[in-house]
Design brief:
CATH class: Alpha Beta
Bound molecules: ligand GNR, nickel (II) ion
CATH topology: Peptide Deformylase
Order of helices and strands: HEEEEEEEHH
Radius of gyration: 16 Å
């Protein structure tokens, strides 16, 4: 398994719309294995392939608490078939916007349909952090980051903070 470099904003590659996978073969499973290792190493609770420069509809997720057994989830070609009407607020972060956070409203619960690691069609009802994470990852597949849900002013503040942090890293 390989740890892949995670692309951070601003980068045009993060705006690319991902394309569905046609066949779930060993090549796809190898990407998912590398994504999971990269996600755990980061550490993060989710990762989309586009964040490691592969614009395909592939997502890994694991929202299990640190002190519990890992429960990795692989979602291939996910589609949300149902959103709850109730919105929930959560302080969202992103590995492609390191150390930046903002409160964001999203539907609290979703139903998602996807192909699993073996190419089997699955349906999952998710709520709480799992629902949050899947919606965040599916945004990545559409070339969207969580800051794209914010006002121009709030997005500008975060992107400038990120730019400043990056420049200070170069200087140090
Ligand atoms: O690790 C992550 N944590 C997180 C917290 C709140 C809402 C979404 C996320 S996903 C993020 C990893 C990531 O950037 N995935 O794309
Ligand atoms: Ni993200």
């Amino acid at each position: 398994m390989a740890i892949l470099p995670i692309i951070t904003a601003p980068d045009r590659r993060l705006k690319v719309k991902s394309t569905p996978v046609e066949i779930v073969d060993d090549k796809v499973r190898k990407i998912l294995d590398d994504m999971l290792a990269t996600m755990y190493q980061a550490p993060g609770i989710g990762l989309s392939a586009v964040q490691v420069g592969i614009p395909k509809c592939l997502i890994t997720v694991d929202v299990s608490p640190d002190d519990e057994e890992n429960t990795p989830l692989y979602l291939i070609n996910p589609e949300i078939t149902e959103y709850s009407e109730e919105l929930e607020s959560y302080n969202e972060g992103c590995l492609s916007l390191p150390e930046q956070f903002a409160d964001l409203d999203r539907p609290g619960a979703i139903t998602v349909q996807y192909l699993d690691y073996f190419g089997e069609l699955r349906r999952l009802r998710a709520e709480g952090l799992l629902s949050r994470c899947i919606q965040h990852e599916m945004d990545h597949l559409k070339g969207r980051l969580f800051v794209d849900h914010l006002s121009t002013v709030k997005r500008g503040i975060i992107l400038r903070k990120l730019d400043k942090a990056k420049r200070q890293k170069v200087m140090a």
